[in-house]
Amino acid sequence: MRSKNSGFTLAEVLVATVIGVISIAAAFASYGYFNKSYKSISQKANINNTAREALSILTKELRMTGYVDPNYLAHSPENRTERTVRHDFLSVSSKRFGGKYGQSDMLQLWYTNSATESHYIVYQLEKYQDSNDYYLAKYATLNRHAGNANVYMRNELFIPYVEDFQVILKDKEGKILVPVCNSGCGPVEDAQGKDTLVNTKYGQLTKGQANVDLVHTAEIYLTLRSPKEVYAKAKSTKIINGEAPHGSNINIPADKYHRETFFVSVHTRNLAKHIAISEQTGTSIGQTASYNK
């Protein structure tokens, strides 16, 4: 008998080859798509996490701003008075270290956490050495006015790739307060009359210092940029943080980076003095330690 050898025909081999090539190409295309999507989502998630953690720290510090331990003036190595400590409570310098777009603010704050320790903290944008990008830097000093002052943070990277940092201070009526500035002030605060002398119950202060006593709310606008390109096509971006003429108004040329703005409004409970009024009697219902006095 003659045996028959079974096998694939040339047409079948070609069809199988084509199907295999298509399957491999589809797999690579899917891998590339999902890999890009993962990187994009990952960068956006990192921006969210970074901003939320940073704003959480900023919120705690702003709530502490202006707090003076009851025993601080008697036991502090800085030998200061109630009038002189108020000089450092809070200061905002508009466009002082403006970053890439020249519009970002500088924030300075001060508080005590014991009878012998005070913390002076500064936030401002600093430029990366090897690029034109900026980050939010943090400086912190323990007992700044004492002979043994300790700078325990200097130019520390607090938030990477920051496009805009705005600080807007408001009184209890919601009106923007300017200037609120003592040290490190810029030309904006000079033009607003920061050095005009004002009589207060603490003695004579400058207008920039006296306005600190009216600050009820601090609003922070923080715009971050992704470290790497995210989008397939370039697009322009407009950033509007705050209320005109305060805040920023930035037009960014088209690129492929992702940007996102985060906002927080903080009640500065140790600064503005508030008295709650009863609607029924029209008289004060008192001052409590749990709310601004």
Q: SS-based structural class? A: alpha+beta
> What portion of residues belong to β-strands?
25-35%
Element-by-element helix/strand order: HHHEEEEEEHEEHEEEE
Count of individual beta strands: 12
What is the domain total for the residues? 1
> Quick check: average pLDDT?
86
Number of helices: 5
Would you write up a description of this structure?
With 293 residues, the chain is of the alpha+beta class. The chain is built from five helices and twelve strands. It has one domain (38-267). It has helices at 10-64, 72-75, 82-85, 187-191, 207-210, and strands at 90-93, 106-112, 118-127, 134-142, 150-159, 162-170, 197-200, 203-206, 217-225, 235-241, 248-255, 259-267. It has a five-stranded antiparallel sheet with strand order 1-2-3-4-5, covered by helices on one side. Strands 6-9-12 form a three-stranded antiparallel sheet, with helices on one face. It has a two-stranded antiparallel ribbon with strand order 7-8. Strand 4 (134-142) and strand 5 form a beta hairpin. The chain is elongated. The termini are far apart.
Provide keyphrases for this structure.
293 residues; alpha+beta; 5-stranded antiparallel sheet; elongated; disordered C terminus
